[in-house]
Amino acid sequence: MKNLRVTTTIIAMAFVGLTAMSCKDGQKEESSATMDSEVSQEQGSTSTSDAQNPESQQVLADYMSLKDALVATDEKAAADAGKKLESTLKSIKLDSYTSEEQKELKEIIESATEHAEHIGRSDMAHQREHFQMLNQDVTDMVAITGTANTLYQQFCPMYGEGGAWLSMEKEIRNPYFGSKMMKCGEVQKEIN
Amino acid sequence: MRILKVILFVLLVVFIGIQFMPTKRNQSDLVPKTDFLVVNNTPETIGKLLQVSCYDCHSNNTAYPWYNGIQPIAWFLEDHIMEGKKELNFSEWDAYSNRRKNSKLKSIMSQIRDDEMPLFTYTLIHRDAILSDVEKQSIIEYMKSVQDSL
């Protein structure tokens, strides 16, 4: 009787162990399946040929909410904005651009996605570090895709070797320091 | 008391059981043409530092410790290495676009400067992977020069 109980327990443990292992594999399959469906979704929809591609406008909108969250030194809101930006970047369509632009945009998006993903799961200091690099990507993207609204490229020399960002308003509100140095910076350029 | 014995016995059986579970080993004898050290023709002193302090988790070739033969440690290491290579893989350096190389270099410099890398849990065991201030500085300066040459 005792032996039977021990044996049963061992079998149960082995079963639990194996189930846990197979669950791990199952999850992997599931995530690759989601990726597949995303890809087919992208292929299925029609492309837009407007100069101002709506998805790049959405990238800018997400970027602005991220920037505002950093201005407010709100780690949680910045992480959420990072995640939102990441998913927008993944859905961007490039069909309406020349192959050279597409190549450049692909590199930009790949890099920006990586930064957005980091922002989605990091502390404030790291979020700002990645925002600085993300900013380069978004600025380069806008140079290709254009923008529906006037943007102000602003710059604060105090952050690292200097931190730049884009804003819809002329007024300086610093995303790298927030309330610590809200007014640090100047408008470098107007982008139309 | 008997319950405790049974539990211990079961744990022992599970422990022995998982020793037979396979793991993926991150090892390769080949140094690919895309390797950071090859592409940048990195000086030996810097290369040695990177290999000892970074390459175990950030390349396609890990120098495994003896305890990698034991589960669940091997799983833990496998996970760590996968994560590390996702962030930065020196073996596939040249496959990154210049844009990404640039941001990887920036991150390398800031991680080393802020003592976030190499990980504390790694240097706890790999005492030789600890970087002195001089070594940190030389890596940072070198990475800066690579960045400038992009």
From TrEMBL, chain A:
Looking at the record, which segments are called Disordered? 27-56
Ranges for domain DUF3347 come to: 59-149
- Where composition is biased (Polar residues), the residues are 32-56
Q: What is this protein called?
A: DUF3347 domain-containing protein
Species name for this entry? Gelidibacter gilvus
Q: Which lineage ranks, top first, belong to the organism behind this chain?
A: Bacteria, Pseudomonadati, Bacteroidota, Flavobacteriia, Flavobacteriales
UniProtKB/TrEMBL annotation, chain B:
Q: Which is one Pfam family of this protein?
A: Haem_bd
Q: Quote the InterPro entries the UniProt record gives.
A: Haem-bd
Report domain Haem-binding positions: 12-147
UniProt name for this protein: Haem-binding domain-containing protein
Q: To which species is this protein native?
A: Gelidibacter gilvus
